[in-house]
Design goal:
The chain has about 160 residues and is an alpha/beta fold. The protein is about 40% helix and about 15% strand. The mean pLDDT is about 95. The chain binds 4-nitrophenyl phosphate.
Length: about 160
């Protein structure tokens, strides 16, 4: 089983949406026994909380089921997941700090986005639904490419 952890700051907007979108793609490809995913936030502000109502709304708008309870990213996650996917450069730095250094399994979500490679998935927290729709489109594209990468790399 290949295990993937998507990570943002609060674990209520970007990373639970990435998790939900990726889970739906895993199911669509019939890869549920091969790939699993979860999400976490580098901050502890929203531990135990459901995703932001705007995250749920944008997921619902695209018929993507979403269910998650916030958890904080911790060092032990490096042993439990094969891929740690940061939503932005700041999340990545916070993760490196928690892990006491760089890690081979650490990537940026938009390393896999053809349209804006290596850029941040913008934090939609202070904006309106347009920002959440933009995040959805970025995550939909990036997770498509990421799934291709995983399938090729692990001969699925
Ligand atoms: P996320 O968005 O990192 O995509 O979940 C945020 C959620 C909460 C906060 C910031 C960003 N906050 O400051 O509480």
């Amino acid at each position: 089983m290949i295990k993937i952890l998507f990570v943002c700051l609060g674990n209520i907007c970007r990373s639970p949406l990435a998790e939900a979108i990726f889970k739906q793609k895993i199911k669509q490809y019939g890869l549920e026994t091969m790939i699993s995913c979860d999400s976490a936030g580098t901050a502890n502000y929203h531990v135990g909380e459901s995703p932001d109502p705007r995250t749920i709304e944008v997921a619902n708008n695209h018929d993507v089921p979403i269910k998650h309870f916030g958890q904080q990213f911790k060092k032990h996650h490096e042993n439990e997941f094969d891929y740690l996917i940061a939503m932005d450069h700041s999340n990545r730095l916070n993760m490196i700090r928690e892990l006491d250094g760089e890690h081979d399994s650490l990537f940026l979500m938009r390393d896999f986005d053809k349209n804006g490679k290596g850029e941040d998935v913008p934090d939609p927290w202070y904006g309106g639904m347009n920002g959440f729709e933009n995040v959805f489109q970025i995550l939909d594209r990036s997770t498509d490419e990421f799934l291709k990468f995983i399938k090729e790399k692990h001969s699925m």
